[in-house]
Amino acid sequence: MIHKKYLCVLLVLVLVAACVSAGCVGSSSESDAGDESGHKAAKSSDASSDTEMITITDGLGRTVTVPKNPEKVVCQGAGALRYLCYLGAQDAVVGVEDIELRKDENRRPYAIANPWLQEMPLIGEFRGNTDPEKVVAADPDVIFWTYVPSPADADEFSAKTGIPVVALNCGNLGVYREDMYSSLRIMGEVMDRGERAEEVVEFFDAAIADLESRTADIPDEEKMSVYVGGIAYAGPHGFQSTEPTYPPFMFINAKNVAGEMGTDHADASKEAIMEWNPDILFVDLSTYQTTPSALDELKEDPAYLSLTAVKKGEVYGVLPYNWYSSNHGSVLAASYYVGTVIYPEEFEDIDSVAKADEIYTFLLGQPVYDMMEIGFDGGFGKLSLD
Q: Which of 65, 83, 118, 234 is the most buried (most CB within 10 A)?
């Protein structure tokens, strides 16, 4: 009996040892709390390989757990890849939307500064219409997504791919500036570029403060009236396309005749433009990509030919900033250029091209003005109406 008793104990010990080595014994782990995609279960192995995980709140208020400073990411939606480039973290990109594969387009500063993006694997169509299978094939650790329709869409895409989605509100330098800054900071936290994110925010704030201070004391009655036409909005447009809150006008306190048309993109009627009869006209050079362009209209339309600014030749070209959402460096560059035209004394120290490249170099590491000028068939300067 004693012999059999010890034999049973020995068998029990052997079974326990085998169970432990197979992982059968232990407390509840993260994998037990995983979502439908099994994402947490999949990422639990990262912790054992010394990958630091952080939990962030994204632009839609979702709580997302991601690897800190991930080695591989993809960006989908307008502006997401641009922000990654501002943070100097673009080397982590492992796949891009189809818009980034366009050869020598030269209309988005971040793409000009990083031509190698044209050779990256495709993850799907631009504006966030990516293919989950192609995203999975790129094997990113994190997906950054702007212009997400809803939190449910972000959750669904994460479930389909098994990859955490960080949703971002793209924002702009105008009325949605805080959304833009928040997105830079969220992305900076994930990519371990928090310090750089703050530098970028401070750079924009300092430039805007400088622009505003130059003209803050000029009385409204001493200001010339201005209008900008041909503004790009989901593509090129004619002269009636404008921005009531055109940032380059806002930052220098210009008298925008279309300023009462709201806060979003607007189409001014020809009758309204005639009634306003602005002192100075600006043309967004993206208009050259459509026919007739805004400049064609100013040269050929009898109504526009009667405008005072047209008769005096006070018509100026300005580099676009709306090209796959706002290129914020171009917003600042255009602001300084417009300032030199409207307020030459207050901006007499500014060389517009040099200032543009100073801005692009800070944001993207290199000057790109010359290539932008090629991409849009023109740059800052007075336009010929002959």
A: 83
